[in-house]
Specification:
Blueprint (H helix, E strand, L loop, with lengths): L9 H11 L18 E4 L8 E4 L5 H38 L7 H24 L3 H7 L3 H7 L7 H15 L4 H37 L2 H16 L4 H52 L4 H33 L5
Antiparallel strand pairs: 1-2
Length: 327
């Protein structure tokens, strides 16, 4: 199955593009020796002497990705040259072979100019289609994925997601199964976005939890209760009773936050397990007959869709806690 940057998760696509479209001498953004001297000149500090760091040799996948990048650069350069030279040559040919058919030189120049302008516009469009970034948006090779994915800073879900992408590229599909895989891709992208949203919600709750420790609130609630038992003055008892009620509310909110933090964490773990299950099912498809492969693809799509719906329900349940003002 063919996968491009436009098909995968936007955040991961941006990270991949940054690596694969970096200058050739710094391709992949790592300390890799591609050409020239295998030493990198570095200043450690203004007061220290410069040092030389030896670059490492690329592995087979990195080398294949580099060669693919060079071929794309060459193809783009050839198309740019053709887009400039062919219309120019066509215009000159028009000027030469149609000269006898015109009495006025203005008409001849207009004709050749129109040929040149039309050819240049068409050639420019044709050349731009060969830009490396355009090619990558429609097609990523297996070697490019295997070369760049290990260098990306990814969380658990993103790492499994990338493994699933590698498995998809390896999978041979017919037209029906490929449509199902395209649906799976969209569902996986949504699943990964949901994982990040859950993590953002969880991170936003952690500071609130730090300011409202359940143990501290329970101790404070107990002290207020004991204090209330020792007070006989009505006005004072009313003030302490009010403080006790507010402390009780804060304690309940803190317990609710803990419960929702647990829900978010469990749901994130469930998303990772769903991604891993999808990866395992794709691996099983490698040796399955075509009919069984199609059924397996449908099962994957249904499982991921159900997990997205479940995640949406968890987010809705937690949303009200995010808006609670804890005193």
């Amino acid at each position: 199955m063919r996968i491009g940057l436009k098909d995968i998760d936007a955040e991961i696509a941006a990270k991949v593009a940054e690596r694969l479209l970096s200058p050739l001498k710094d391709f992949l953004g790592e300390n890799i020796h591609w050409k020239g001297i295998p030493w990198k000149f570095r200043w450690q500090a203004i007061s220290e002497a410069p040092t030389f760091q030896r670059k490492r040799e690329p592995n087979s996948d990195e080398r294949a990705a580099y060669e693919s990048r060079c071929r794309r650069e060459d193809s783009f350069g050839y198309r740019i040259a053709a887009a400039i030279l062919i219309p120019l040559a066509s215009g000159l040919c028009t000027l030469t072979f149609t000269r006898s058919g015109y009495e006025l030189s203005g008409g001849l120049l207009l004709s050749s100019g129109a040929v040149w302008a039309g050819g240049t516009a068409l050639g420019t469009w044709w050349a731009l289609k060969a830009r490396p970034q355009t090619r990558l948006s429609y097609s990523l090779s297996l070697s490019e994925m295997r070369a760049v994915f290990p260098h990306l800073a990814l969380n658990r879900a993103e790492r499994v997601y990338c493994d699933a992408l590698l498995m998809m590229v390896r999978t041979q599909t017919d037209s029906g199964t490929e449509r199902t895989f395209q649906e799976i891709m969209l569902q996986l992208n949504t699943l990964l976005q949901n994982y990040r949203q859950l993590d953002q919600r969880r991170q936003s709750l952690l500071p609130i939890m730090g300011m409202h420790s359940v143990a501290d609130l329970e101790r404070e609630f107990g002290e207020l209760g004991r204090k209330l038992d020792t007070i006989s003055d009505t006005i004072t008892r009313n003030a302490v009773q009010q403080s006790l009620e507010m402390c009780s509310t804060r304690l309940e909110n803190a317990r609710q936050i803990i419960q929702n933090l647990e829900r978010l964490q469990v749901q994130q773990d469930a998303i990772v397990q769903t991604l891993a299950s999808a990866l395992s099912a794709m691996a099983r498809m490698q040796t399955a007959p075509v009919l069984q492969a199609g059924e397996t693809a449908q099962e994957i799509a249904q499982t991921v869709s159900q997990m997205n719906q479940q995640t949406w329900a968890v987010e809705k349940a937690v949303e009200e806690v995010m808006t609670i003002g804890i005193e």
